[in-house]
């Protein structure tokens, strides 16, 4: 499973990228707001750090305007994936931009039927939002499993990009289901390294080592 990092914080992206943990980046208007930076400028900087797909989201609501915005965003770098919302106009935009050879990430997906439409419109990535479904007492992971089954039934090549990941368990379950990609904030990716028994075991080793009175260096 590929790891995308869901942030526009270039320092966090650089740190994870240096460790080989970053196969791509996803941003959205809320993350651009959080960064406090200009969308073109910060996206260009991210594309200079990461060689994989970097999603940059359009903000228009009509297809004509989304297409124009998408073309402008795609000029930033060859690894831009234009992110469009899963609306009828977003699907039209997906069809046009993917036909022009651009990568397209269809976002804000909350149903298997939406994912089916995105695949038929030529999406490179479909982004089902797990955490936001969990927030309304639905099971976001069920949606990932349903989309996996449907795409495999018909051989759709659209990659399932599991988004709105909030927990380490979301990551494990997405990998078990067979999501192609997961995108998570840096804090969630770092939390994957943690285990209470690792901490406990290391604490015991440190205590015992101190008792030996030895040094390695
Ligand atoms: C994905 O592309 C989105 O930017 C993101 O995963 C949304 O996550 P959230 O629901 O935690 O805001």
TrEMBL record:
Coarse class of the protein's main subcellular location: cytoplasm
Q: Tell me, which GO biological process terms does this entry list?
A: carbohydrate metabolic process; ketone catabolic process; pentose-phosphate shunt
Keyword Transmembrane helix on this protein? Answer: no
Q: Which domain of life is it from?
A: Bacteria
Task: Tell me the PROSITE patterns matching this sequence.
Answer: TRANSALDOLASE_1
> Which subcellular locations apply to this protein?
Cytoplasm
The record's GO CC annotations read: cytoplasm
Enzyme class (EC, first level): transferase
Residue ranges spanning the membrane: these are: none
Query: Pathway listed for it?
Result: Carbohydrate degradation; pentose phosphate pathway; D-glyceraldehyde 3-phosphate and beta-D-fructose 6-phosphate from D-ribose 5-phosphate and D-xylulose 5-phosphate (non-oxidative stage): step 2/3
Among HAMAP family, the record links this protein to:
Transaldolase_3b
Q: Which family does it belong to?
A: Belongs to the transaldolase family. Type 3B subfamily.
| Protein name stated in the entry | Probable transaldolase
Q: What is the lineage of its organism?
A: Bacteria, Pseudomonadati, Pseudomonadota, Alphaproteobacteria, Rhodobacterales
Gene name of the record: tal
């Amino acid at each position: 499973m590929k790891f995308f990092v869901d942030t526009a914080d270039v320092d966090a992206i650089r740190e994870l990228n240096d460790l080989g943990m970053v196969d791509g980046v996803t941003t959205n208007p809320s993350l651009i707001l959080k960064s406090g930076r200009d969308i073109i400028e910060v996206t260009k900087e991210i594309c200079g750090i990461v060689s994989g797909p970097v999603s940059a989201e359009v903000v228009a609501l009509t297809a004509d305007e989304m297409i124009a915005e998408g073309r402008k965003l795609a000029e930033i770098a060859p690894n831009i994936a234009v992110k469009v919302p899963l609306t009828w106009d977003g699907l039209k935009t997906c069809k046009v931009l993917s036909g022009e050879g651009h990568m397209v990430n269809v976002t804000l997906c909350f149903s298997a039927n939406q994912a089916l439409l995105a695949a038929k419109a030529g999406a490179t990535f479909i982004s089902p939002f797990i955490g936001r479904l969990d927030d309304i007492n639905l099971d976001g992971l069920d949606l990932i499993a349903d989309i996996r089954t449907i795409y495999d039934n018909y051989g759709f090549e659209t990659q399932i990009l599991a988004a709105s990941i909030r927990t380490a368990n979301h990551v494990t379950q997405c990998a078990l289901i067979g999501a192609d990609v997961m995108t998570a904030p840096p804090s969630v990716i770092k939390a994957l390294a943690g285990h209470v028994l690792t901490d406990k075991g290391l604490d015991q080793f440190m205590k015992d080592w101190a008792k030996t009175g030895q040094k390695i260096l």
